[in-house]
Amino acid sequence: MAKYRSSTTTQGKNMAGARALWRATGMQTEDFGKPIIAVVNSFTQFVPGHVHLKDLGQLVAGEIAKAGGIAKEFNTMAICDGIAMGHGGMLYSLPSRELIADTVEYMVNAHCADALVCISNCDKVTPGMLMAAMRLNIPAVFVSGGPMEAGKATIAGKAVALDLVDAMVAAASPGISDQQVGEYERSACPTCGSCSGMFTANSMNCLTEALGFSLPGNGSLVATHADRRALFVEAGQRIVELCRRFYQQDDASVLPRSIANFKAFENAMRLDIAMGGSTNTVLHLLAVAREGEVAFSMRDMNRLSLDTPHLCKVAPSVAHFHMEDVHRAGGVFGILAELDRGGLIHRDVPTVHSASMGEAIARWDVRSTGAEEAKKRYSAAPGNRPTLEPFSQETRWSLDLDRENGCIRDLEHAYSKDGGLAVLYGNLAPDGCIVKTAGVDESIWTFSGPARIFESQEAAVEGILGDQVKAGDVVLIRYEGPKGGPGMQEMLYPTSYLKSKGLGKACALVTDGRFSGGTSGLSIGHVSPEAAQKGAIGLVREGDMIQIDIPARSIRVELSEAELQKRREQMDAGGDKAWKPVDRQRAVSPALRAYAALTTSAADGAVRDVSQLG
Ligand SMILES: CC[C@H](C)C(=O)C(=O)O
Ligand SMILES: [Mg+2]
Fold first, then answer.
1. In 348, 408, 415, 594, which residue has its Cα 20 to 30 A from 4's Cα atom?
2. 128: left (phi over 0), alpha (psi -120 to 50) or beta
3. Model confidence pTM above 0.90
């Protein structure tokens, strides 16, 4: 029998002081000897995806207590990327992932907790908590706040479903009146929950299902629906059971590193590629794998992208499907089941809720299951009534089982035989870069054009809005990588403004920064190595021709090796000014400089590498 970690502070005469303090938190004599389970909440009033989580930690805690555990709740931070977007605030977004992971480690190790329930939702919170779960390797269950309902509005006489990206694009579109922009703004984000498209938050919450860490429906069941409550209740019950299995029955298969093993990462990546997840998932999966010492790399992602079909297009890749529609079609398990029918899923990995992924698919695939519970869960619909109240409506609709034209397609009707995310390599990105092909019009899968160079996101926004960018250009934004930014900003404003200017299908955008899940178009990010780490992207000059070939998975600048080498030598000779942006005024706080000093390349997940300290 494994010893409870918590016994360090709850057992033995010498721990009388610690027990005295535990008692002051509400523990009784009979509680010493029960597992202490950390309920890691990310409630904050700053983020729509988290405003409704305040009481949900205690909902989980109550279930833990009923099942025989001791629950202790604490909070992590959460940043709203949508509010932080487009200004210096975005520098903090990616680094917050490491702080969240550290917060969980600090609290759990300082107090010797035995297990975790992670209540996450928006962008960096789920990845930060996943990193912590893998780092700590103690039983962990994930449950997120759930997606926001899509906005519904009648604009210019047409009924539309929309989200915040539509409001952003509309705001800078010349043909749209202030009054219409106001309509977009007021209807884009009607409820609590993570923004309604296949953005980063929802992508990551879907991936927790495929990794085996969360219950079916976690990624897609809207925050407002009463059925979502069951996920919180069950998370509390499950974690106590997992504790029992690990600590009392020596069953290490319940530990995060057993669940999220290499095969589970392959499953998660296949899901991601099939659903056209946010490009940020690449960064986060690499970081999570690293924490768990799983040898899963960009090369694996590239390999999987070549034979994983693209089955699902959701906003921003198409306008009319949002997460609520993914759910209606069977959610993550609907997609996993289609992949499984093609033999593309490892069935023999354990999950927190089922003995194996294969067993879970059999139960939760809406097309083949005999379980009424599954059909009912996926019939949960949006209420279409503005609210911040979770679980406050019980609307249902019929399932979408149309695998030809519905929200989830089967293999036969795939959008493409290779997937919605691709890794490109070439002399501009020797360590790779990422593009969400799901959101790229097929007409521009190959593209070549002159580089228009911007040495910051701000300069790019100014250039695009100032009409300096023309159809056919490749907008190249550099020194925005993990080290160079620092913090690898999301470029949602430049990509949205290209659309506002009618250039969405006429230009490419290439950067060592990253994108929001709200980005679509020929937007290529994570170019590695980044400019600040002497990457070739730093050597490109205005007007150099850039060639992009998605089917061939290649990205090149039309320069010979000799020319690149010559420029590299010239750059190196520049001393202090070399490999730094020209004329960029940017205040970088000491906190961000600490992240910049330690971070690694996007190709390594932009995690901190303390081994550099010696
Ligand atoms: C809409 C975009 C969202 C706020 C985001 O930051 C992401 O998806 O990454
Ligand atoms: Mg984001």
1. 348
2. alpha
3. yes
